[in-house]
Amino acid sequence: MQTVPVSIRPHLVPFFFKSSEGKEASYGNKKVKSVLYSSTASSVGRMMRLLMVKADKPLDVKSFNLFLTVSDCGGKKKYKGDFYRHVNGKNHFLYLPEDANNDINDLLEDIFRMAFFYYVLGSSENDDDEMVTRAINSFIDKYDLLEFGFSTDTLRRLYYREKKKDKPVSRFQALRHHTVLNYAS
Disulfide-capable partner of 100 in 38, 51, 61, 121 (CB 3.0 to 4.6 Å)? Predict the structure, then answer.
């Protein structure tokens, strides 16, 4: 079974960088953050632990580190996020089958979408379209989403589609969500 390093989709990096607790540092034109996920206490860590069992990987892991990097290369930002397993005081790349990598990204994508939905819902009153647009633009700016091709129109459609369902948590019941900006899922 071929394994790959577990990396997260680039558009999720600024969201988790700004929304997660962790140690942050700056080096020249780079900002980095280390986010710790317990393999027994956090839902993301427990899922990754289960995926390790499924892939017949050794379970000598106490926690997983998500290293997030935002680099500014001459006005153009680059985003990278990789998971490491923390074993005996050292970090090692986390290698899992590609399907497991997709499963982890799908969960993180669902968290991102839920946060977006409730951010806009909480920021707008009475479904006022102008307030919805302002909230969407604020979310786009806060998480650098223009860098990835997100637009007010696409996120407005996502917001109203989720709102129309009137069951936003049903996202966690579906087998897979739709493709987001060329990221297969």
Answer: 51
